[in-house]
Design brief:
mainly alpha, 5 helices
Length: 155
Amino acid sequence: MKSIRIVRIILWVALIAWMLFIFHLSDQPATLSAETSRTISQQILEVVQEDPTPQMIYSFDRFLRNSAHFGVFFVLGLLAYPTFFVQGWKYPAMIALFFTVSYAFSDEFHQIFVDGRAFQFRDLMLDSIGGFLGTLTAILFHYVFRKQFLKQNRE
């Protein structure tokens, strides 16, 4: 079927593009990454409060950076499960979970070689939890919409 082949290609392209995006973020030297993050944090806080204090910016920046670790791997999990499912692979959920955690590990390992960056176990945990919950969310959506689709087709 031509349409399933197109879906497979689109999912693989999206998954690989997202992996490259994560790699790009991890490949930034620590000073550039920190400066970018701090600037974004300050701009967000300035919307809420006219002149945020340095402590407010620092605290929000930590929250934002931790959320980013979680979030980018959440999206990776959302993309991984359907990519492996449409391939017709056995146990796509287990493969997606293994894949996201492995990529989180490789991402942290990669940072050892980036100026000012390091392997952070805390970041590995945030990445892995994000990937796990993203995969779980994709599985739940698949289950709910599949049941709904089957129910509609029976009526």
